[in-house]
């Protein structure tokens, strides 16, 4: 499962990654990619498939709703 995390606050990204890694599913291989820059995240998402995307709604350059 490919998960993309997007939040302009690096601390939040760290917390989300810790939570995801805390509850591993032995039958599910996880690939987590995190972005603090929403423009970089959008570029990545346009060229890479993701199964789950967690977006911060309020970010300076592009909102999470705009990315979605």
Written account of the structure:
The protein is an alpha/beta fold. It has three helices and three strands; from the N terminus they run βαβαβα. The protein has helices at residues 10-22, 38-47, 64-67; strands at residues 2-6, 31-35, 52-55. β1, α1 and β2 (31-35) form a beta-alpha-beta unit. The model has no long low-confidence stretch (mean pLDDT 93).
Break the fold down into its secondary structure elements and pairings.
Elements: E1 2-6, H1 10-22, E2 31-35, H2 38-47, E3 52-55, H3 64-67
Parallel strand pairs: 1-2, 1-3
**What gyration radius follows from the Cα positions, in whole Å?**
12 Å
Largest sheet: 3 strands, parallel
Name the structural class. alpha/beta
- What percentage of the residues does DSSP assign to strands (E)? 15-25%
End-to-end separation: 19 Å
Number of helices: 3
Question: What number is the mean pLDDT?
Answer: 93
Annotation, overall tally of beta strands: 3
Estimate the helix proportion, in percent. 25-40%
Question: Which residues form runs of ≥5 with pLDDT under 50?
Answer: none
Q: How are helices and strands ordered from N to C?
A: EHEHEH
Which geometry do the CA atoms define?
globular
Reading side by side through the largest sheet, how are the strands ordered?
Answer: 2-1-3
